[in-house]
Design brief:
Number of domains of chain A: 2
Oligomer: homodimer
Helix content of chain A: 25-40%
CATH superfamily of the largest domain in chain A: Spore Coat Polysaccharide Biosynthesis Protein SpsA, Chain A
CATH class of the largest domain in chain A: Alpha Beta
Largest interface: A-B, 39 and 39 residues
Distance between the termini of chain A: 49 Å
Strand order of the largest sheet of chain A: 6-10-7-9-11
Chain lengths: 365, 365
């Protein structure tokens, strides 16, 4: 069976964890953080040998869609789906899946974040194709799980049956037992020890018609939204589509559908994966020197180790400092202990509080 | 007796310890490090209530003299004495003292560094005037000693008689027993414990004619240089003056004269003093927040203490970092442990080594 694979790239995130490089108008997916090009461009390029541009869609708000159009000039404008407002992921995926359903109800829909790092690309594509085949042939929802490398409290977990339910192209898949929300540390440790838990990566696969059926059966509150959306798109009625979008509950697809549906399968990812969740995660991505320093821009490190420096095109000297994150963007400078980079959100909160009557001249957030 | 006080501001230093802010072309004395204006301007302004501009001279090489002319536009151009080459301080002070001797052999010459911080200015002027009176009336060389606050190994020391030899305007002066070079730590500790040692501040006072007499008697190798310099200046012959300058041994005035002369007096400074020797010394100069952070430019410090930030006009966020020196100058960024700031010279040495075939686009030193 020839698969008709379509990809939906979720590009609406407003990630602030890369401040001061990321701002409201330039979230992580639009920044060249992991490689030479933006994470969105790299996400798309990784797919192109498997899926042509005309079968790749993006979903984001109108402002971000303008940026996407600039970053992906070769893409059909009608593939850049616009969210009329922020309503979490379930309404966006109803929109995208309905859009694809119009073309071909049996098309296989792959949902991917726009700001994850995945290597190597060819292994990813092979396993993605295997996942698509499983989703298409078995008529179920499929998800990728990331084998955990530490007891993270920042990801949701997927509990799966210990034994594979089958294999496609050599890749095993397991029946999902449950989706678990971000756990406290002790619980995360138990998950990792158990060996049957993977991180929920936010990568999903379903046939458009299977999605519609599962949604109506397991998440009936979305059924009217689905029907109205499909009807609106069929008539190419943008206003009606937006109205349908706004009637749907603002829930995540995990909560609205994945956790409730039966017969969900998980493929434990074989490829390397990082959600590049904060500055310190780049220490595992960028090349490091023999003292564990990594940098964009030229550095000179004297008795300095484990530092991450972002100061592209300019010179940075480090003397006697360890495990720092230093980010210079021209208008703002961040100097942060490496294990406290999640606190950049506190900086942003503070800046927003101070905005009124501020002496700040620039849009720092 | 009415004193004819002249001041010679030594502005030829090439201090590199404030890299990346200081560079070859903008040494410390030309930077607004301690206050709103450059240290040279503040040095001069501190004097003006006591000494008019026409009686203030500077000594520096030709390139630095161009900068001085820009910083001190109201000064007579002929007061900006130019060193034809770098030959340490003794030849420069022969030049300057001879220049003043031409005007008035009994003028009192005050020699001051251009890059020291002194507060409060009025106390300084009162004690300076007292020193001038002692130098003029007793016909001796006078120096200011800084009461040591810790056993520094970075300064020379002046050993003085325990009991004052006299007082002027309430300020005691002591006979100097010896000048001591920068001591190792143990020796420095003994000096501080003894209570009769002060730091050699590089501030000297002498009558022009007394200087000439002491030089000829205690440092005869400079006698021909003095005579040729005086003759050249009398004829306003710049070439002959330069030639005289270049014949003199390249020694410091401490070594050439002060250590050898008899009857030298020291006044223990009552005013606050700092030679602002490196970035960390500014922690005692700039105002600090309640966590001991100090900054040029706006900062937000989250669990951060004891840091010095130079990033004027821009925003710096600190998270969980302590005792750092961070300096951002647009083309270069320094991140340095506070107790290792003397190592910026190693950065400079490294940059100079790399200069050949370098990928660096800018004059970083």
């Amino acid at each position: 069976m020839k698969l008709d694979i379509r990809v939906v790239v979720m590009a609406g995130g407003s990630g602030t964890r890369f401040w001061p490089l990321s701002r409201g108008s330039r979230p992580k997916q639009f920044l060249p953080i992991a490689g030479e090009r933006s994470m969105l461009e790299e996400t798309v390029e990784r797919l192109l040998p498997l899926v042509p541009a005309r079968k790749i869609f993006t979903v984001a708000d109108a402002a971000k869609t303008r940026t996407i159009r600039r970053l992906l000039p070769g893409f059909p404008a009608r593939n850049l789906l616009v969210e009329p407002e922020g309503r979490n992921t379930a309404p966006s995926l109803v929109l995208a899946t309905a859009r694809i359903h119009l073309d071909n109800p049996e098309a296989v829909v792959v949902v991917l974040p726009s700001d994850h790092l995945i290597r190597p690309a060819d292994l990813f594509r092979r396993q993605l194709e295997a996942g698509c085949r499983a989703a298409a042939e078995r008529g179920v929802l499929v998800t990728f799980g990331i084998p955990p490398t530490f007891p993270s409290t920042g990801y949701g977990y997927i509990k799966a049956a210990a034994k594979p339910a089958g294999r496609v192209n050599g890749f095993p898949y397991h029946e999902v037992r449950s989706f678990e929300e971000k756990p406290p540390l002790e619980r995360a440790r138990r998950f990792v020890r158990a060996g049957t838990y993977t991180w929920n990566s936010g990568m999903f696969i379903w046939r458009a018609d299977v999605f519609a059926g599962k949604l109506k059966r397991h998440s009936p509150e979305y059924a009217p939204g689905w029907d109205r959306m499909l009807a609106a798109l069929r008539k190419d009625d943008r206003r009606a589509a937006n109205a349908a979008f706004k009637t749907m509950p603002a829930k995540s697809i995990d909560y609205a559908l994945m956790e409730k549906a039966s017969g969900v399968l998980v493929l434990p990812a074989r490829f390397g994966w990082s959600d590049v969740g904060a500055w310190s995660s780049l220490l595992d991505v960028w090349p490091r020197d023999e003292r564990g320093n990594t940098a964009r821009g030229e550095i000179l490190a004297l008795d300095a180790s484990g530092n991450l420096i972002y100061n592209p095109g300019r010179f940075t000297a480090l003397i006697g400092v360890d495990n720092l994150i230093v980010v210079e963007t021209g208008d703002a400078l961040l100097v942060c202990r490496r294990d406290q980079d999640q606190r950049v959100k506190d900086v942003l909160a503070n800046l927003k509080r101070r905005k009124k009557g501020s002496r700040l001249h620039f849009p720092l957030f």
